[in-house]
Amino acid sequence: MGTARGRWVMGESAAPGAAPQEEAALDRVLAEVAGITGSHAAGVFLLVPHAQALRLAVVTGLSAGAVRPWSRLALATPAPVSVVAREGHPVWVHGHDELARRFPRTAFALPYRVAMYVVPLRTGTTVSGVLQLLWPDTRPDRLAPDERAAVTRAADRMSGLLTRAAARGRPLRPGAVPRVLAPDPPPPVPPAEAQAAAELTERLNEGVLALDLEGRVTFLNSRAAELLGRDKRQLMHTRLWESLPWLIDPAYEDPYLAALFSRLPTDFTALRPPDDWLSFRLYPDTTGISIRLRTAPAPAGNRLPPTTPSGTAPTRAGALYHLLYIASSLTEAVGVRDVAASVTEQIMPVLGADGLSLLITDEGRFQDVASRGFPRDHKDFFRGLSLTVDTAGSRTVATGTPMFFSDVDAIRQAFPLVTPYTRMGAWAFLPLNASGRTIGCCVLAFALPRAFPPDERAALTSLAGMIAQALERARLYDTKSQVARTLQTALLPHSLPHVAGLRVAARYLPAASGMDIGGDFYDLIRLDGSGAAAAVIGDVQGHSVSAAALMGQIRTAVHTHASTGAAPDDVLTRINRLFSDFDTDLFTSCLYAQLDVPGHRALLASAGHLPALLRHPSGRTEILDVPPGLLLGVDVAADYRAAEVPMPPGSVLTLFTDGLIERPGTDLETALRELAGRLAAAPVGSLDDLADELLREAQRTSGGRDDIALLLVGPGQAPGG
Fold it and tell me: Which residue ranges does the record assign to the PAS domain (predicted)?
């Protein structure tokens, strides 16, 4: 069923703060399930903390270089791995045709004949990663029951490891680069047999080569060296498409990647100058790739491929496949920071760039939006640099055309006074053209000289145009978003009234993305009578100016009717009837609590809102059972009922909106129980500290997908107060 892997690990041994023994256990399970199911390549992706992204933590069967373009994925990406992480259910894809139908962007970036199965991994009840396995698409079109069962067992074991690590406060996190499990070596061959095998290949009238999973030559016979026109020693431990100038082309590296990913034989024909055509046939397995090399007749038309000067870095295969896929991810970037993250975290690694700066113009100077891979003095040089200074960047902006420098001599000759340019081997300055004007410059730098062939220049220039359009949209978004947030803040209470004997803490946190105004609101209203107050929380449907306007109307109505001393059910009934005058088709959830602080009790009524939680002085926390009522605005004739609950000194009543608990792959009841557990386990302290801790946990688990409103109230003095 396949060779077990995991004899040793290459790459980063552990993510910071992780438990090495549990990482090793995760690696063992991955190697075992790949061997049992016959999967030739498998990997584990884990969620990146505080980011809407997944990163490849460990992989087997593929090289680090091969998986680099796919090692980080945005959670919103329409790819099998991201969909499973978001939705929490497995995805099976049999072959490239099905992949192209269901996940066209992924199929474009991964144009190889593979079948894949992706399953979620959970920490407790929350999806925190995925397991992905690959097979050749020649396999049966369905998983056998024993294969599916083996994958399920492996996912359960991995989930258990993740859960235990998190419970110990040392959760498993993906490192900066994935760990690569090396294949188990083949059984040792006696020296006499090895010598006989080498002699056998020497007697053949064709070339024989062996590559490891990284594409490096580990063996070649004399005929192969003769056909390739190099000495054996010059070719050993090199990649052919890097060491042979006439193979420096993505078209020649791609068959290696196709064989590596699909584990199916591939072939191609290449011209060795001046006029010798060679046929390469690649045979992959779990340890590497064998190549049979023969002379070949000239193809029809005898069109000569372009050549690249010797000594320059090649354009990576996979980068060109991945370019449009990455560029399409820019359409998902919302603000300027999102665009910058997409460019530095996804585009830069795919291009193989060693340095990248994203510069925009502002009042005649450059602003450094994002920079990676450069020393500080380079960043300082560009930050605030006047466009009147003659640099490659300012000239690119002035002309709106790209500039490429294949080596240090070329850029030194053009700009002899700009010393930071001399620290890299090659440079590309790409204009950011949008709406008929140049808004900035994208600077790419490479450690080695680079030829920048015509197709790459065209692709990079097109990519820069897409970045420019994304940046222009993002700058407009950020401006509108700031206006929206300012308006939303103005609609919420600037401060809460003091109520004798009542501790209060309130928080509002807008969603991490989305420039429209949210409809979440909260309020505390002092009522007539000593120690009487009303605590209110609600959520207007949607995110828009209309939702904000309705939120303002509801807050005003709540104040008006609460001040009359009406009971909670009466307040909701009256506000619901007002919806006929509001001229809106939006619905609103609302929870109203009338607090009798001296009497140590509260009356609660709900209009379709999430239940409140009550933490008792002992720490026990319960989800309050309040009679359900329709959302406000659904039926103006709806009635609401109230329920009374005790609130002894030291208790805490928690009111919140759904953004506090909603997470991908977690149902509402589970999320409520988990919140109750966090409240029960929280140390006794100030309500402000408790509110901050609840928000931190929500941001960690949900990533700020929705607005959060939180209101904590409790009778009695704060500890130490």
Answer: 193-236
Residue type, 141: D
Contact of 592 with 603, CB cutoff 8 Å: no
CA distance 459 to 49: 33
Are 424 and 558 in the same domain? no
The CA distance from 107 to 99, in Å, is 6
pLDDT in tens, 56-96: 999 999 888 788 777 888 777 788 999 999 999 999 999 88
Total residue count of the chain as it appears in this document: 721
Give yes or no for a contact between 658 and 539, defined as CB atoms under 8 angstroms apart. yes
Instruction: State phi, psi for 536 to the nearest 5 degrees.
Output: -130, 140
Which two three-digit tokens encode residue 651?
């208790």
Helix axes 319-329, 250-262, angle to 10 degrees: 80
Same-domain status, 445 and 594: no
Same domain, residue pair 24 and 163? yes
pTM over 0.85: no
Residue 354: inside a domain: yes
| Per-position DSSP letters for 208-272, written without gaps between them | EEEEETTSBEEEE-HHHHHHHTS-HHHHTTSBHHHHSGGG-SHHHHHHHHHHHHH-S-EEEEEEE
Q: Are residues 377 and 501 in the same domain?
A: no
**Chain segment 390-417, per-residue pLDDT in tens:** 999 999 999 999 999 999 899 989 988 7
Residues 129 and 230 both lie in one domain: no
> What is residue 273's three-state secondary structure?
coil
Radius of gyration of the chain (CA): 31
